[in-house]
Write a structure and sequence with these properties.
It is built from 6 helices and 5 strands, in the order αααββαβαβαβ. It is of the alpha/beta class and 165 residues long. It folds into 2 domains: 78 residues, Arc Repressor Mutant, subunit A (Orthogonal Bundle), CATH 1.10.10; 54 residues, D-Maltodextrin-Binding Protein, domain 2 (3-Layer(aba) Sandwich). A 3-stranded parallel β-sheet has the order 4-3-5, with helices on one face. The protein has a two-stranded antiparallel sheet with strand order 1-2. Strand 1 and strand 2 form a beta hairpin. Helix 1 crosses helix 2, helix 1 crosses helix 4 and helix 2 crosses helix 3. The longest helix is centred in the middle third of the chain and has 22 residues. The chain is elongated, with a radius of gyration of 26 Å.
Length: 165
């Protein structure tokens, strides 16, 4: 048994393979992956050539996987899941070397109370970290946190406002 050269196979081809086997249609697979029909056809041709198998045959019921495609389904799905999980791993934060910019939401009073000790700590332990202070109307706090405009809100909440906790 010899090792197959996989240099012509990239993850996008494997994602296409997965979409094709799931959808049974080149059109549907292309739509799911936001690919033009010509891109799907060209990519499928590359896969067929690289794997030396037609992989899918056109029938009245759509594209049917060949025995080789069926045998590859589970290993390819597993490989794609492993790659996705690896990429989804949170990046480790090292304050000593970080150059991240943190967007904080503070009121004037919050700046006076929280900002000086925070900046002193950052200068010591995270000298490359930058802080940008945002002042926004109170009614926009929740939306700014949800949409990522700001990373953190520091300050005193108005009485009864619990939707930010």
């Amino acid at each position: 048994m010899h090792e197959r050269d996989i240099s012509g196979i990239d993850l996008n081809l494997l994602k296409l393979f997965s979409a094709l086997i799931e959808a049974g249609s080149a059109t549907v697979a292309g739509e799911r992956l936001h690919l033009a029909q010509s891109t799907v056809s060209h990519s499928l041709a590359k896969l067929r050539d690289a794997l030396n198998d037609p992989l899918f045959v056109r029938t009245a019921r759509g594209l049917q996987p060949t025995p080789r495609a069926l045998a590859l389904r589970e290993p390819i799905e597993t490989a794609l899941k492993i790659v996705q999980q690896a990429l989804d791993q949170p990046q480790l934060f090292d304050p000593a070397t970080s150059t991240r910019v943190f967007n904080l939401l503070m009121t004037d009073v919050g700046e006076m109370v929280f900002l000086p000790p925070l900046m002193a700590r950052l200068r010591q332990g995270a000298p490359g970290v930058r802080v940008v202070i945002h002042e926004l109307p109170r009614q926009t706090y929740k939306q700014a946190l949800e949409d990522g405009t700001v990373d953190l809100a520091l300050g005193r909440l108005p009485a009864g406002q619990t939707d930010l906790l």
